[in-house]
């Protein structure tokens, strides 16, 4: 597949699955051999771990949207710099709803094979999120 096709598949996963809550899109795009190299502790590195993670996120931030800033593709890799936006209306990691609007900055690297995700590496600004939820002290 071309780099443009790979970028389109990654964009589709973000808009239709993450933002649109369409579980069937994850089943279609995540290969059975998929490995998430940066899955949160306690979650599977496979596709079931991705579903579990986003089901948790959707409960905490049911209006979550995805804003894609940049995508760079080379060979079978696509890197995306993006942000999740949402309102904290459900429990998140033991933090009761604050009803605050938050932004979660993310950088993902996806390796695709035959139009499907086979590997993922990601960086999430967890400290920034916790600061917005006031779960950690803000610097002056």
Model description:
- 32% of the residues lie in helices and 36% in strands.
- With 140 residues, it is of the alpha+beta class.
- The protein has a five-stranded mixed sheet.
- β2 (65-74) and β3 form a beta hairpin.
- α1 runs antiparallel to α2 (23-29).
- The N and C termini lie far apart (49 Å).
- The mean pLDDT is 95.
Strand order in the sheet with the most strands: 1-5-4-3-2
Task: State the separation between the terminal residues, measured CA to CA.
Answer: 49 Å
Large-scale geometry: globular
**DSSP helix fraction:** 25-40%
Tell me what portion of residues adopts beta-strand conformation. 35-45%
Could you name the ranges where pLDDT drops below 50 across 5 or more consecutive residues? Answer: none
Radius of gyration: 15 Å
Count of helices?
Answer: 4
Largest sheet: 5 strands, mixed
What is the N-to-C succession of helices and strands?
HHEHEEEEH
Assign the structural class, choosing from mainly alpha, mainly beta, alpha/beta, alpha+beta, or little secondary structure.
alpha+beta
Q: What is the mean predicted local confidence, pLDDT?
A: 95
Q: How are the SSEs placed, and which strands pair?
A:
Elements: H1 3-19, H2 23-29, E1 30-36, H3 47-60, E2 65-74, E3 77-87, E4 101-113, E5 116-124, H4 126-132
Parallel strand pairs: 1-5
Antiparallel strand pairs: 2-3, 3-4, 4-5
Helix pairs in contact: 1-2
Descriptive key words:
five-stranded mixed beta sheet; 4 helices; single chain; 140 residues; globular; alpha+beta
């Amino acid at each position: 597949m071309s780099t443009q096709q790979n970028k389109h598949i990654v964009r589709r996963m973000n808009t239709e699955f993450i933002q649109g809550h369409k579980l069937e899109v994850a089943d279609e795009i995540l290969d059975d051999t998929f490995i998430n190299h940066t899955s949160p502790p306690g979650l599977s590195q496979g596709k079931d771990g991705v579903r579990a993670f986003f089901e948790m996120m959707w409960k905490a931030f049911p209006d979550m949207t995805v804003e894609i800033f940049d995508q760079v593709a080379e060979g079978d890799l696509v890197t995306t710099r993006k942000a999740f936006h949402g309102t904290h209306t459900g429990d998140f990691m033991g933090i009761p709803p604050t009803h605050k609007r938050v932004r979660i900055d993310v950088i993902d690297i996806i390796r695709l094979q035959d139009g499907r995700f086979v590997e993922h590496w990601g960086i999430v600004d967890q400290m920034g999120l916790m600061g917005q939820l006031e779960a950690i002290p803000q610097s002056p």
